[in-house]
Amino acid sequence: LEEIFIDRAKSAKNMNRPAIKDMVRRIKAGGISYVVSYRLDRITREKFSYYEFERILNDFNVKIIYTNDLNTDDTPSGEYVKDIKIASASFERMQSSQRVRDKMYQTLKQGYHVSGLPPIGYLSGRESKTIVVDKNCAPHIKKIFEDFLLGKKPSQISNEFSDAGVCVPPRKLRCGKVFKAKPYSENIIRKILANPTYAGFVFRRTKGLELFKGRHKAIISEDTGLKRIRNGSQRHHMGRWRSPSICPNRRKIQKPLRQQKVQSRARIRSASSVRKMRDMQDVSTIRHARTTASFH
């Protein structure tokens, strides 16, 4: 064997993996005749990625051998079997992902927290998928929502916390990982204001936002959460539990100045070209009239 490439704890859903990229670079460098893999779905489970990988193998005259899978040839029957195996691998991945999403959805409907790490203000509970209030951080969360309902912007709240020396306290997870203390930046405050967890909900974002009553204790009251929605939509255009950085009523993004200049130049050129075409048409019309008059 020339070299062994292993992607540890990486899904084979596509070719965007460090080891497989290194292997492709090694193949392109030359001097490789065979690639040995455990199974076809260990290369990738995405059909377009596999066909691209196969094209690279054909360009550099490299053959692939599977130790625990069927090795097909270049005949029509072999290509047909290979296409079926790629489709089966892709279907298995999509089906597994759908089952995980369905399981998470049912867990959410029961009020459990399945969104990864607990948000600032909460800690992992003793039971799985439960969170408890962080007593050191809960007053900060309440103060953030109170100030926001009074009309203060996230940047103002962040500056006040910074001047007072208030920081996010360090947190330690059950796995032993420790998060160091950090300041309440404007971005963190925006995320806190956009998180329904503090009002006692669990949620998921698909096409929209679905809220479910959570099993955890709320830091702010549900009435405060409703006021936050109402006041946020009126004052800061924040809508229904959306990120404060998004303005639903102002979705037009101003283009960079350089792009504006290029477009303005294009408009000028297009306008000048139109004028030239009109002048040419006028000239051709006059010439045609003169020619017709001479014949008469």
Compact description:
By secondary structure, the chain is mainly alpha-helical. It has eight helices and ten strands.
Strand order across the biggest sheet?
Answer: 1-2
- Outline the biggest β-sheet: 2 strands, parallel
Q: For this entry, what is the oligomeric state of its chains?
A: single chain
Helix content: 40-55%
DSSP strand (E) fraction?
Answer: 5-15%
Structural class: mainly alpha
- Identify the overall geometry: elongated
Number of helices: 8
Q: State mean pLDDT (0 to 100 scale).
A: 77
Rounded to an integer in angstroms, the radius of gyration calculated over CA atoms is: 31 Å
Beta strand count:
10
Describe the protein in words.
- The protein has 296 residues and is mainly α.
- Helix content is 48%, strand content 11%.
- The protein is built from eight helices and ten strands.
- Helix 5 packs across helix 6.
- The radius of gyration is 31 Å and the shape is elongated.
- It starts with 17 loop residues before the first helix and ends with a helix.
Task: Name the descriptors.
296 residues; 48% helix; two-stranded parallel sheet; 10 strands; single chain; two-stranded antiparallel ribbon; mainly alpha
Q: Secondary-structure map with pairings?
A:
Elements: H1 18-29, E1 34-37, H2 47-59, E2 63-66, H3 76-109, E3 122-124, E4 131-133, H4 138-149, H5 154-164, E5 167-168, E6 171-172, E7 178-179, E8 182-183, H6 186-193, E9 201-205, E10 209-213, H7 222-235, H8 257-295
Parallel strand pairs: 1-2
Antiparallel strand pairs: 3-4, 5-8, 6-7, 9-10
